[in-house]
């Protein structure tokens, strides 16, 4: 979330006790009034701050809450809120990898409805939520954010295309990351459409990034799906497909649930491997996760598509781009994502 420059009025609060929540609400309303918001927006900002502060206290144990009136020159244009949990490092075994999954994670859609911009990310071992409320006269048109993450790619050729059903709100997401030749590919299709579904997709992005930063995905595709399932409990859920490639490029493992589908072409016997996963919804109705694996002979081509892409897209090895695949096979009535990886 880009800053808007200029001097600012700012408040920083430590959230450790229930009384700190009441102080955060009071400071939020005072700062919103000083910034120039009307009574309706003041109440919205106060409610959003109360939600963030409450979940810092109840679900993260403690944390910090920063409020800032962000002007350009001498005219305020927005109010920024930043909530950061205090706990650092990997979570305890058996606990969800997202400490906000009962509040700031899955409940983030509530804050999104009250604020104009909301981002959830993972920085320095901590989850952080940043939110902004613009004064009506300066509120910009929403901008579609990147639907997924691609990082650290060296050995593989990656091509991704994502087409949202509704502008500014894509409920598909993906993460593709390489570590010393090993590869993780994750595609998720959150149930439903619109901003609330897109917020769940953002939570998935943040959790997947954490799995990469802590190298937790090296435990296998099954473990990745289990972590996402735990994180999404209580939400609308998502169909997911996770696949890992061994550093030598000759063995893959995959796991998932629902109607995110894939196929792997290679030069060895059989030539093609369908990436079959059981029915279900991560976070809602997912039985025991069972990973599958296959040996292959490079050169290989992996294709994974979300539910918004016709299954016929997997009938033959693609010769073109992910965007060309969407142009031919994507439905205009659904979010659509295509991931192509070649090695």
UniProtKB/TrEMBL annotation:
Superkingdom assignment: Bacteria
Coiled-coil features, chain-numbered ranges: none
InterPro entries assigned: HATPase_C_sf, HATPase_dom, PPM-type-like_dom_sf, PPM-type_phosphatase-like_dom, Ptase_RsbX
Residue span(s) of domain PPM-type phosphatase: 155-343
PANTHER family in alphabetical order: PHOSPHOSERINE PHOSPHATASE RSBX (PTHR35801:SF1)
Name under which the protein is recorded: SpoIIE family protein phosphatase
Species, as recorded: Geochorda subterranea
